[in-house]
Each structure stands twice: as C-alpha cells, then as structure tokens.
Amino acid sequence: MAQQAYMTETDNGGSGPEHRGTRLRRLFDRLPGPWRGDPRIWRRGLVVATCAVLLAVIMVLHSRIPNTIGNLGSLTETFLPWLGLLVPVLLLLAALRKSATALIAVVLPALVWLNLFGGQVSDKTGTGGDLTVATHNVNADNPDPAGTARDVAASGADVLALEELTASAVPTYEKALASTYRYHSVQGTVGVWSKYPLTDVRAVDIDLGWTRAMRATVTAPAGQVAVYVAHLPSVRVKMEAGFTARQRDRSADYLGEAIAHEPLRNVVLLGDLNGTMNDRALNAVTSQMRSTQGAAGNGFGFSWPASFPMARIDQIMVRGLTPESSWTLPQTGSDHLPVAARVKVATSGS
Questions:
Q1: Could you give the count of Cα atoms lying within 13 Å of 332 in the half-sphere of its Cβ?
Q2: By 3-state DSSP, what share of the chain in percent is helix, strand and coil, each rounded to 5?
Q3: What's the whole-model pTM score?
Q4: Which of 8-22, 38-52, 56-70, 187-201 has the lowest mean pLDDT?
Q5: Is 36 helix (H, G, I), strand (E, B) or coil?
Q6: What crossing angle do the helices spanning 86-96 and 46-60 adopt, rounded to 10°?
Q7: Coil, strand, or helix at residue 319?
Q8: Going by C-beta distance under 8 Å and a sequence separation of 6 or more, which residues neighbour residue 44?
Q9: Residue range 87-110, pLDDT digits in tens
Q10: Closest to 271 measured CA to CA, from 255, 258, 284
Q11: pLDDT at 270 over 90
C-alpha cells in the first residue's frame, strides 16, 4: 500500500516534461488581463514563433549561407548586427497575438544576438598606447578636401592614411597636411602621412591593374611598424546579380598574402576594405589580424554611409600591436566617417 502511494506521488509530482509544462502554463495563467486562463495562449502565434526560430538559425549559421547565388552569405554578414532589430519586432507581434509560444521562441534569437554582439556593445576603450593611427576614405568627389584634411589632422593621429585620392586633389591634401606631417607618400589613389620617418615605401599589388594599396615602414619612437594602406574594390547590390563582390574578394586574397609575408613584427592595416569583419570573403586578411574596434572600441563603430552609418567597412587592423582604444571621428565632406585607434607598439623584448 505504501509502495502504491509512493508511485502515485511520484507520477503527479515528478520533474518530467508534463509537470514542467504544467508549471509553465500555471505561470502564464497567473498573468493579469487577457492572458489569464486563455486556453489558446499556446496555440496562437505559431508563425511568429517560427520566424523567431528561423532568425536564430540564420544568425547562428550565417557562415553556412552560400555565396554561390548573388553572394548572399557575404551580404547577410555585412549587415548581420542589424538582424537584432527584428527581435523587438517579433516580441511586439508575440504580445499582440497574446502567444506564450511566440514569446518563449523570441528569447532564442535574443540570446544568439547577445552571444554574437553583446561584447561589442560594451565600452572596451583604454588609456594606454604609444601610437595613434587614423584612416579616411576622403571621397573622390569631396567638395572641401582642404577642410577634410584639417579635420582629420586635428584628430592627433601620428600616422594618417587617406584613400580615394584624385590626382587633382593630392596637392591640396599635401599643402593642408604639411604643417602636421613631415613625411608622406602617395601611391596611386592611396597615401600615408606620418610624423615619423617613412622608409621602404612601395605599392602593393592587389590584382587591379592600378595602384590602390601601398606599404611603408614607420620608424616610431617605440619601434618600427609596417603600415599597409588599402582601398579594396567597391561592391554593389543589384537586383539581377545580388551582392557583386568578385573583384573585391580577389583583391582581399592578394592583400592577405602580402601581409602574411610581411617580415616586421608590428603591422597595421588602414583602409576602406568595402567589407566588415564578419564577411567571410575577407578571411585572408581578417584571419591574421585583429580589429581595433572589436578589441578596444565602444560600440560597433559603423563608418558608412556617413549620413547614417550602417556598417564598418573602414578598418584598422593590427598584428603584433596591442589595441588600446578605437573610435570614429566626426563627419567631413566625405561619404565615409574617419576612424582612429591608439595602439601599443610591441618591442623586440616583449
């Protein structure tokens, strides 16, 4: 008799799925207003719940989305952080549908987004460092190159990289930056200005047929740094072709190979890569370098378009150097925002 009583108590009070489901239902039954005692609370909102699960799957498996059709994978990864905006939308729809199932499902993409990007929302900036670098795509159609030059020079950067320089505008930039930077070199449409001596300056072949990348050694007080400046080909989103980025992807491979063979320990890459750190197509570069924004920035540091930044395609990446802080600069006459970072140069003994 005692055994039968024990078995009855176990069946009704155990920790099986049925009991947990009953407790969850009781929790929602205790909610005020129209949620209380609604038997359809679990059956409504299945479409919203399905969308929430699908959103979570896309964020988790974004690297598995194929690039064979319109580079859909790269397009998704470029704007991946913005998928988080769908979470509050789904939450609102779940509340309007009065669906407990949908509300629980929305938790899944919220947790995935926090796992992917929660660390970037926090402020990781420090106060150390011994070298400040900056980069800016100045825009070939910039109506005020002299003003843009003064603005970026005011950032206090020791080393400044500029991209999308036109032959007609180069003298203007050289004149405006001469008082701040003693050394400079322009190779094709990219250039570097430095407060410290430049040596071993040369163009870098990224398979374009004209020069949009360069390399120089900066002899800073803390040590020598190999500075790469690059402007990878633009990408386009076309209705008939999707995300067209074949030339950019090939140039990224060439740039990554050049950096991989760099003999100096301290390396910094400055430039407009027309892609984000999430974009797998830039793996030849991103796999061997750290983003200063990701390591020591505050927020996502979006840089383009300047009027309403939606992606960080202007990058500062380092190898050997330690990022201490990273930030975006105020808008200039360009359609990109300048970005800057302060880094610590690794000495030979460290």
A1: 30
A2: 40, 25, 35
A3: 0.84
A4: 8-22
A5: coil
A6: 160
A7: strand
A8: 97, 98, 99, 101, 102
A9: 999 999 999 999 999 999 999 999
A10: 255
A11: yes
